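Final report, results section. Input specification for complex C-07:
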Amino acid sequence: MGTTINTIPKTMNPTAIKETAMPEADPINAPVERPADTVIEEGKTVGIPFSDDPKFKLRDVEVFYGETRAIKNISLDIARNEVIAFIGPSGCGKSTFLRCLNRMNDSIDSCRIKGSLLLDGQNIYDSKRDVVELRARVGMVFQKPNPFPKSIYDNVAYGPRIHGLANRKSDLDDIVENSLRKAGLWNEVKDRLDAMATGMSGGQQQRLCIARAIAVSPEVVLMDEPCSALDPIATARIEELIAEMSESYTIVIVTHSMQQAARVSNRTAYFHLGHLVEVNDTSKVFTTPEHELTESYITGRFG
Amino acid sequence: MQTADLLPLVLVLAAVAYGFAFMRSRAVAAPLGGIRNLKALPAYYAARAALWCAIPALIILGTWAAFEGKVIQDMVMASLPAELAPQSAGRASLTLSQISNLAAGKLDPAMVPEGISGAATLLQELREQSSQFKTLLVILIAVLGGTFAWTQVAPQINARKSVERTLQRLFFVCAAVAILTTIGIVFSVIFETFRFFEKVPVSEFLFGTSWSPQTALRADQIGSEGAFGIIPLFTGTLMISAIALLIAVPVGLLSAVYLSEYASPMVRSVVKPLLEMLAGVPTVVYGFFAALTVAPFIRDLALALGLEASSQSALAAGLVMGIMIIPFVSSLSDDVINAVPRTLRDGSLALGATQSETMKNVIFPAALPGIMGGILLAASRAIGETMIVVMAAGLAANLTANPLDSVTTVTVQIVTLLTGDQEFDSAKTLAAFALGMMLFIVTLLLNVIALKVVRKYREQYD
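Structure output:
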């Protein structure tokens, strides 16, 4: 991890790092100041938003909460087996956009989605689409660790049991062990699989949630600020894990920490007030951002 | 002045004290440069004066009212000439009521002995004196208290703190009233129960299988001996409660699941209050619904199926009671299901679980303690319910396992034992207290067991 930190641009001064490292900016510190002369042109994204081999092909996506337009005409490709980071100030729509990818917004009554969202060429929001199957392919890890109040084993076995992935008890044991190994948790919990998951530390709980998500062998893992409730050591552990996982999964991570985006992702997308302002290779975004707003944000002028 | 008139007077005095202390505290503060230089806001000085005025006066008033009657009575009785002094307690109360009736002018003085009418005059005098003295004392104490607090209004007195302390004590007294009342009820029941067990052996009460509490009133009367075995009553209670819970738990729970997980907000806002209205229907209405509609229907149905059924049945009472307690289960379950954190729900849905899988595997176990609480409340309600059973299940203490038979319950028997003419020292009347005690113990045990179960199986989330 120590070496990748060099990708952070030199333009960042120490105070900026301190500010932007805050997991969730509170409303008082919410963006107040932004270059007044900057006009965001709707649907215009600078950088390289598209890919030759997209896992997700998202075009003209708009999301409404009641009358409010939370996502404004966003088009983006998410490539196969890449790690893409969504960054931006609070309330910019990055989590909303993320939750469209496995239809977690369905449970919010007032939420409407427009546009075309394709996973491997198939429409996610097709009325005939089986949400259950979609979510099995597109797993999710949440901001706050949310293990079920069950044993560690039952937490990981939850998904496989529901989807009937194991025919025998021994198969299930294998799935649980493999998932826990992939999440780097096996050595810590192998002797207490029957213990309550809620008794583990925050970092362990979050890794358990990752193990739980990968136990159903998803193709994509969505992570909504997975480290914001964790201390730096647990965060480092999860970032290592993301690096290992990137070989076999497509990962979309929302983060408030620009260092984290810089460390773990191949590409970075900068969101602003519901617009997708800039998408580019992570090193490019953090060294030579093309858009004025991106630059202001990563240098800590607001956000 | 009577106590009832003095009470508002004290409150008026307290209000006056409030006003004066308020003005004085402002006056004290003015030369110091405003109320910021006082230790407390003017309202606190004022409240302190009002409390000083009202509380001692009210304590005196209460004490006076409590002991006044007894003291005057004793003085009057002591004044009776020796030949009229009553020999027994019964005589004493008779003489006393003669005296007070005479004093109230309900009795002709010519009809009673000389000494009695003398005592009546004394009673009248003492009452007047007492009333005057009480009025004077209460007003004096109130004025003194208020004046004292008024003179104490000074920047260095922390009125805020003393008001806080007084209020704290007031809250404690209120809590103590509730607790003491409960303790009082328990003790009165316990004493009567012991008196009952002097007449009927405990073993017969607990293990007897026949219940017919009709005892002879007089020794020469021909009457049954009376049998006090509670087993038929408890089996009746348990059967009806079990039937009620069999209806209420599944229906209530599933409707709670529907309301919290599936119903749209519009449907929910209509259905939930409607469901809760079931709890607001008076039990007597349920009672005649059970007796006049459900019970005959069940009897006819049973006859059509070739079964023997009585016109009053445990089934009818249980069914209607089940309907009545649905809201206890559904409303509480709905609340606890809603209280399960959204993150757990999302976590399960994100793994590709359907809504009902999420419900069954995650939300239900997490909400179990609260749901058990709701069921328990419903069970206590079912065990204690009387009206429906009186009307629909009958009074016959049959020891039976057939829900189509008429049965009776503990509560119904308590009602029948204590209504109508009765003696307060017969086994029949005292049996009611013993039954009440048993009911109390059973409900308590149920609560304890349920708490243990819940603590053992709960899946805790934070």
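The longest helix of chain B spans residues 159-199. Residues 3-157 of chain B form one domain. This concludes the modelling results for the funded period.
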